[in-house]
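Working notes for the structural subgroup meeting. M.R. asked for a predicted model of this chain before we commit to crystallization trials. I am recording the input and output together here so anyone reviewing the notebook later can reproduce the run.

Input as submitted:
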Amino acid sequence: MEPTLESGTSVMEATVSGVHAAMREGRLTARQLVQGYLDRITAYDKSGPRINSVLQLNPQVLAEADRLDAHAAASPSVPLAPLHGIPVLIKDNIECAGVETTAGARCLQGNLAREDAFIVRRLREAGAIVLAKTNLHEMASGGETVSTLGGQTLNPYDLTRTPGGSSGGTGAGIAANFGLLGIGTDGINSVRSPASANNLVGLRPTMGLVSRSGLVPCGLTQDTIGPITRTVADAALLLDVMAGHDPADPVTSQAAAHIPPSYAEGLNRDGLRGARIGVLRSFFGEGPGHRAVNAVMQRALATIGARGAELVEIDEAIDPDALLADTLVHLYEMKGDLDAYLARVPSGVAVRSMEDIIASGSVLPGVIGTLKNAVALAGNETEYRERLQRQQALRDRILGLMAMHRLDALAFPHQRRLVAPVGEAQAERNGVLASATGFPAIVIPGGFSEPDANAPHGVPVGLEFFGRPFSERVLLRLAYAAEQALGARRPPDCAPALMT
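Returned structure, recorded in token form:
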């Protein structure tokens, strides 16, 4: 039986505020909440539709819940910690003490983390419980969420489609209510793609706002970690916990002066009123394959305008495909950054370098191709420096554009066409603007395509807001108000509430 959180409400679509209200009133324990999610994972991830989002459960999860329950019972007058008893799904390229970190690769089995990544430590200090590690596109090197260790994760809204990626295990798991909060990583699209594909909220923070220590890297100029949640309010609560300086990740030193007392306290249902939002038309498709997404975007933007935002048409010729081809640097950094990580893994792990992974022959063929390409590019300093210069030029161009039009944010679909079916490559995603600049972006549920036999609700479409550096408070305010206006979040039919 799923525990009752509020009158008439089960673990389905639970929020941090709802859970904490039930805990304070004595109607819910952390153990009951954890068990409710474990039951759903058993019923729907490993059986039934076999969504296949979870790679491994935390073997200590119930003991951790019991410890938190005992602490709360012993100190009933002490306020609950910000994430007390909240079960979190964490992408399996982030280290959690006592649990393997595999990045979905069989050759990294045995990589038992000695300590928590910085952000996991922050989560635990805030009272959160690591429930499970989730599947990802192997080595975080693709957008379809398939790995040799975990296989193919399915999109719970259309089981014939992928869940986006590379953080698709976290996305599918949060969408299907297998955990309350989720953590993903984003090198190009990888937090926002699963959010768009799974009717969720996904935030890529400004580079330097959130530590990457304890991450299996793909290229640290672009790699970051961000929340994947069902609501903007929960994403803001999660960012309040995650943001901060970590001496082990020097880039976070620049963020200290930009972190407000609280992101969550800045949310406002009327937050769209008076905002100037630039609609970046070059990030919309124009062919027959784009009609479904464009129809959702047209309705969503009309609603946002009706709630008081001024929509400014931006016809600047910024080509997302050209940015993908010419500005990204992760392949030039991957070998050095990944080799440095592998040099520190436990002795029982067979691979100690990128060449070892390639030689093992145990990762997906497409990932092997990416790794070989990264090896070939690793020494090309001239092209690497040119790409870094293009990134800086892009930052200057975007800031100039936003200043000229007095914009609070840019808006566009995260993906110009519906998320790819299983077996096809992900196409026409727009996450490159944030990854190439290091600026923040947030995806919220924009709506659904027309329903069909495979997708009873239709296929989710995500709306992306993009902002200036360290403007997360503004983006969250806009996203929250838009989320409330659109009301597009709904759970998938394939994983309904469990009956008694």
